[in-house]
Amino acid sequence: MRRHVNLFGLMCVCLGQLVLGAMLQVMLIVLSRQSLVLYMLAGVLMGWGAFGVSLGVMTKPGTQVRKTALLVSSLLFVVMLTVAMSLWWITTT
Fold this sequence. Notes:
By secondary structure, the chain is mostly helical. The chain contains 3 helices and no strands.
């Protein structure tokens, strides 16, 4: 028996995390904070948010999650974390 999932709720929650992470990232840049932990937190929030939103968008309601959707969503998590670490590196040098 295949499990069919509806990821709309996850997508909505993760959209909030994505926005929160982006707001934290902008605040850190504007206030010139150089805390690695805060930049990592912003990256994880943006990464998890992008993961959930992309997974929810790429999966039709009532269908099974495809492996390609999981792969792309996981890559987005890594990209968001890399962007946050790059911004930290730029602001500290």
